[in-house]
Design brief:
With about 120 residues, the chain is of the alpha+beta class. The protein contains three helices and five strands, in the order ββααβββα. The mean pLDDT is about 80.
Length: about 120
């Protein structure tokens, strides 16, 4: 499996479920995985959608953050993560990155509008 290869040890694959792939250029430092590619790989897209939605819901309603510019990525699982173990990717985890642009939101209509607009 690809993730067992040492060349992929520090590889992150950004997940874009709202778009189709735009490039087929391969680079270990900047890999993007679109919805169409996930379908071609026969990955359980619903599983990723649920994890991403739960994470965004937590960020919005529990942490009170707008999730501005956060990114979801597939990477090697470590012992502290809840691993996903199916498909051609083998054992991996869904990570969330880039919190540096997140801002707080209020728990009212304005906060909901802000969260919807920035993500």
């Amino acid at each position: 499996m690809a993730l067992a290869d040492k060349a992929f040890h520090n590889c992150l694959v950004q997940v874009f479920l709202g778009s189709q792939s735009t490039s087929h250029t391969f680079s270990l430092s900047d890999m993007h995985l679109g919805l169409d590619e996930m379908e071609e790989m026969h990955l359980d897209i619903h599983h990723y959608l649920i994890r991403m939605a739960n994470t965004l819901a937590f960020m919005h309603w529990a942490a009170k953050l707008d999730a501005r510019d956060v990114k979801f990525a597939i990477a090697q699982a470590n012992s502290d993560t809840q691993a996903i173990d199916f498909g051609v990717l083998g054992r991996h985890a869904l990570w969330i990155l880039d919190f540096d642009r997140c801002c707080t939101i209020t728990m009212d209509k304005d906060g909901v509008r802000k969260a919807a607009r920035v993500f």
